[in-house]
Amino acid sequence: MNGELPRVLTLKDATMLVVSSVIGVGIFFTPGGVAKLLPSPGWFFAAWACGGLLSLAGALANAELGAMFPRAGGNYVYLRAAYHPMAGFLVGWLSFFAIFAGTVATLAVGFTLSLQSFVELTPFTQKAAAVVVIWVCTVVNAYATRAGAALNTSTAYLKVAALVAIVLIGPILGHGRTAAMPFASAGTATLSSFGVALSPVIFSYLGWNASVYVAGEIESPGRNLPRSLFWGLGICTSIYLLVTLTFVYALGMPAMAEGAKGMPDVGFQAGKVLFGAKGSALVSLMMLVSVFGCLNANILVGPRIAYAMATDGLFFSAAARLSKGSGTPSIAVVVQAVTATLLVLSFWDLSRVLNYTTFAIVLATIADTSALYVLRVRDRHRERPYRAAGYPIVPLLYILANVGIAVSMVIVNPIECGTSVLILLAGVPIYILFAQHARRRGTTGVS
């Protein structure tokens, strides 16, 4: 059946969706790479704080846009309204096939890395485990949105409690630290390296806008959507700063920055230092819960893009079909799972998938923030339950910062960035085909 998605998500559900979408594998694996690029503690912590501030700047704009258009689809909806259905489709296409499917694949790979602390996995069983966890979450979310939200909220509570325990208990009751002067600088940094270092940081904050994609399912979205963004992001930024502080305390800045790409398993090593031989196993268990929750959140959120495009005639019509009883876009959920599975089977290098996904995120966020300026002029009379604080300066700074990050990424990782651009451009002929078909059918969503 086709129709409107039921509004079954509370403020708590939406906030925990943001928390669960953000806190995943990144905070355990990326600090080493950031420390390699920024071996000075001042620069290192500035990058994590900057990631939170950049996300907040984006959240201010998305809070206004999401409250204006309280329906499924997120930035696809804004760009369609601000520019043209083609602009909305291209960003929606990129978000669905690169950002969310890529994130699901990355998280599934991260899940198997944590799982290897408990069982020995061959290359084949690693991929099999990654595929299995994708489909377990897919079945839950295809069954019912409430079931997916309940699983998400439960795992969000568990991961927050576990990370807070590391911060509070580790330095006080733990076994100590490895470096006499953990906050000593291990080198210098430049503005260029700072821009490149923001790539893994931004990936670690990915998901701060999760609730805008399910705006059509949130109760009282004009009030609860902005709150979910700000509360969720505030929780995540606070936890990230405290956790990275604890990692540096345990391991020391020089040790974290060692190696070709920095210490690759900061979370494991910090757990071992703070809690002894069993510490890495405890961190591994925590990571399994964290990654599983983040994976589930992305599987819940991403299909709403395909659903929104399909309702406008710009995607396969089956993606707009809702399950009887639960009102879940189950076919769109399955399509995303198939795409993520193909990515897992095709690309196994975590860092390459991360860069590919992050560059797509940067492109999409630049586009949807620019829509705020266009809609302030073109649609000035539309009701705005929330107006972005700091407009027009803060959103502009957010756009400029992301442009700088994009340039740095292209210089350092041209292949991954080029792949994201090719995925975006591949959407042009696809849009033309869907738009022609929609016009023949008289679909009103296309112009």
UniProtKB/TrEMBL annotation:
GO cellular component: membrane
GO molecular function, a single term: L-amino acid transmembrane transporter activity
Transmembrane spans: 14-35, 42-61, 93-115, 127-144, 156-174, 186-208, 228-252, 273-299, 330-348, 354-376, 388-412, 418-435
Compartments, record wording: Membrane
Keyword Glycoprotein among UniProt keywords: no
Main localization category: membrane
Membrane topology: Multi-pass membrane protein
Entries under InterPro entries matching the protein: AA/rel_permease1, AminoAcid_Transporter
Keywords: Membrane, Transmembrane, Transmembrane helix
The keyword Transmembrane is assigned to this record: yes
Protein name (record): Amino acid permease
Species name: Labilithrix luteola
